[in-house]
Amino acid sequence: MKFIILSLLFAFSSINMASCAQGSDTATYQVESKSSGEVYLAVDSVDVSSFDVTPDWAPPQEPKSLVDGNFLTRWASDYKDDQWVILDFGKSKVISKIIIYWETAYAVDYDILISKDKENWKILLSLKDSDGGIDKLEFSPVEARYVKVIGRKRVNPAWGVSVWEVLCFGPENKNPEDKPLIFIYPKLVDKLELKDSQEVVLQAEKPLASPGALLLGELQKGVVYTSWGKTELGTEASDQTLEYLKESGVRYVSIMIIWSQASINEKIVSRDDKDTPDDMALIHAINKAHSLGMKVMLKPHVEVKSGEWRGEIVPSEEWFASYSDYIINYATIAEQYHVEAFSIGTELANTTYPEWQSSWESIIKEVRKNYSGRVVYGANWNEYKTVGFWDKLDFIGMSAYFPLTAKKDPTKEELVAAWKDNCENIGQWLDNKGLDKPVIFTEIGYCSADGANTKPWSFSDISEESVDQEEQANSLEAMFIVCFQYSWFKGFYLWNYLPQERWSPLGYPIRGKLAEDVFKKRLKNIGR
Description:
Blueprint: E1 3-5, E2 19-22, E3 25-28, E4 38-40, E5 45-48, E6 75-76, E7 83-102, E8 107-115, E9 121-127, E10 134-154, E11 162-171, H1 181-184, H2 189-193, E12 201-203, E13 220-225, H3 236-248, E14 252-261, E15 270-271, H4 279-291, E16 295-304, H5 317-336, E17 341-346, H6 357-370, E18 374-380, E19 395-399, H7 412-433, E20 439-444, H8 469-483, E21 489-497, H9 514-525
């Protein structure tokens, strides 16, 4: 039987408690159980040292994200040491426990200080060698109005520090105006009650039933669900995001899987220590989607660590042997967990020329032996005409990042006309090839920036001053207006939604932007 320990949001860190100064005396706070008769200490306001302003990843600049009881919101700092948060209770309270839910960018070493006036601070705890996840800190009761957490050392010097939630508790008889957590954030109570040990071991989940087989003629209106993290797909944040997608009208989700190779000339594709999801986390996300009535596609990707695009990978017999093992592994998981569709590859343009067709046909044959659902390949927008094995698949898949215009400020009418040209070209190609196959866009998306329609596949040359939500929304709506008029078109998967909310003012995610309004409206109306 297989087991996995989920460290993010499911496991406690090992904490080294240090001494703290109180006046002229020194006392040591011991970890002890204080779960009975405690109340949640409501926070009046939050102050922070800085915010992360990275255009494509940073969350909203809202300090109270730290205390809103929501694991889809978080605070993230600038990329420096000694970044801090200050919680203000509005008046002095008696504190006996603090729980910190770290995001992936956690502090390895950090201090917790307390104050009654925000000027004179005393060290409460000094922690070393934390390993992220959840830090549950219990100590002898102490009175303070302010609590300050300072990150002294970051797990990754290229990141700042980031926190999902900070919860403070104290004795009920010392804090008469406060209430138990269940009255403030009832959804957090079950999460806390699990934490009686240093680690929670999760058993491999049993497969859940599929909502139904994926029919060739049904309209797939979905999203690509992207994660670059081992356990993120198994977290509460991921569950809540999938629930949000269901509420938005999404019934199809394509879950991305990352393996990697060192360079485009590397012959071995392998799991990535950071980016590849653990199988149990992946399985949890599949089951969660199925429990919400969503149909699932598994979508393997290959990332090139040296920075080149996957479409430039240099194929060889050794590379195909390694890649085949990668794909068959996930095809087997897809079969066991009733996944409705499986992609055998994404944008591997340099490997799909005729000289390698027999290698692809061998992979398809092996996938069919191990998997009974629908099979697709996701060709790049300028690759699909050179792929020679479409007749062996159920769907023709495309990463539909077609350039639309040469303008940074096109009208919606110009974007509609460009999409019509693209669809006419696809339809003519299908006729010329005699391909009677449904086409799906395994990826489609635009950055929320000026000129995003000119090179939809690119983010690297967009400046921080070029935010343009309207162009993102109009480009997406043009696709909706045009593509569903063609009988060969059977759906799309929007790039991208992430298991944790990242604001991304310039990036592809549409959550909270004009494009999401377009997306939700079209989900309801298309196909009825």
